[in-house]
Amino acid sequence: MNAEQIEAEYRGVEAELLARWPETKLEPSRDRIEALMDLLGSPQRSYPAIHITGTNGKTSTARMIDALLRALNLRTGRTTSPHLEEVRERICLDGSPISQRQFVEVYRELKPFADLVDEQQPFPLSFFEMITGLAYAAFADAPVDAAVVEVGLGGTWDATNVIDAGVAVVTPISLDHTRLLGDTVEDIAWEKSGIIKPHALAVLAQQPLEAAQVLLRHAAEVDATVAREGIEFGVMDRQLAVGGQQLVVKGLSAEYDGIFLPLHGAHQAHNAACAIAAVEAFLGAGQGGAVLEPDLVREALGAVTSPARLEVVRRSPTILLDAAHNPGGARATADAVAEEFAFDHLVGVLAVSADKDVRGLLEAFEPVLDEVVVTANSTARSMPVEELAALAADVFGPDRVTAEPRLDDAIDRAVGLAEAGVADASLGGSGVLVTGSVYTAAEAGTLLRR
User: Fold this and answer.
1) Which has the closest alpha carbon to 400: 412, 414, 386?
2) DSSP 244-270
3) Total domains present in the chain
4) What Rg do the C-alpha atoms of the chain give, in angstroms?
5) Which of 302, 319, 337 marks a domain boundary?
6) Which among 180, 173, 176, 175 has a CA at the least distance from the CA of 202?
7) Residue 167 and residue 28 share a domain
8) In terms of CB atoms within 10 Å, which end of the chain has fewer, N or C?
9) Mean pLDDT over residues 33-47, rounded?
10) Domain of 166, in residue numbers
């Protein structure tokens, strides 16, 4: 097939996948994905894995783990969600999305088995279950030396949890997806603890007390070893640097200094500490296994990227993209902006999902945004602009709120407000922060990178 034919095939496969149940629709059962894996010969059991859950920081941590493993000359498979621009971004080999041709070939191989499952189960396989199956099959076909797997939603009932990972990572837990996971931190922690398997090593980021208690209790029940941030590992020193931050990290088996991390925010430093501990655990830290070479850690983390995580996409004025979509993520982003960017006038562009804690998200951003332009992204979940404007006016005050129905117009309006807010925008005193949803950041990235 030529390039145009491959593109057409890929878009057709993408359309077939998107016609399935959306990933936000959760039916608490792994029956369908387990049936699919059984028919495929359990490809997810053909390689070791690091499994990652939590409320915020999962994707960035996964990308750092992937970078560290590749620096060890291991072939990696990584699956994360959601995607920013193309669905194949969810399935990466050696740090890069699989090609359109590979995506189509794996889908065509898997589809007859998926059809059998659809016929035999009360409900057909969902979009996310299919993506998970595709990822696990692609990793086995490669084959990979290690898989880095981010959960889609929760943990216990998540489709990714058919994998038996020897290392489980739990990033910070807070309230999110309460309609599906429970309305207390304890309930959410219990659901996420399900990725910690018997005799595994659990790497736990700093957690609220109620979440930590649930995670530690589950780890004890399954006889898992626990490594806790702030006790067994952690960030020893953090200094701001041009384009990122300079770190000293205490790992499970060594201390690593001189790490330049080209990402913004204290939360990314903590993600880096979790990533280092996870890879050390994967190598058998504390059990006579190899330790990481400091230069390897510096090289891997010095080149890591995490798109739409306080990503600078334009200058004069500075435009930042961030995927914060819940109050916890918004607070981390707001703290990073206040600490690392010297804006005299910062304008937010916000489009959020209606099923989120929108007021909590707005309140987290209010201290760092001088003005806000509310808008909508293209998803059906996006809160109507009029409704979001009313909430924003209540939090920010009506004089600081502007509404624009279209995202592109909202960005243009925000740039104008930012430039008008300071005497000389070229000096870096003004900025625009586009945030509120992964989908918002993704769509803005597509617009701004053209």
Assistant:
1) 414
2) EEEEEEE-SS-EEEEEEE-S-SHHHHH
3) 2
4) 22
5) 302
6) 173
7) yes
8) C
9) 97
10) 3-302
Give tens-digit pLDDT for 145-183.
999 999 998 889 999 999 999 999 999 997 554 455 556
Residues 187-193, mean pLDDT to the nearest whole number: 92
Show the tokens assigned to 210: 């109620």
Q: How many whole angstroms separate alpha carbon 198 and alpha carbon 202? A: 10
Same domain, 289 and 322: no
CA angle, 207 then 84 then 123, to 5°: 80
CATH of the domain at 137: 3.40.1190.10
For 380, residues 6+ apart whose C-beta sits below 8 A from its C-beta are none
Same domain, 317 and 187: no
195 in the same domain as 52:
yes
316 and 294 in a single domain? The answer is no
Top-confidence range, 3-7, 266-270, 422-426: 266-270
> Could you report the per-residue pLDDT of 235-259, keeping only the tens digit for each?
999 999 999 999 999 999 999 999 9
Report the C-alpha gap between 152 and 160 in whole angstroms.
7
Q: Provide, rounded to the nearest whole percent, the portion of the chain with pLDDT above 70.
A: 94
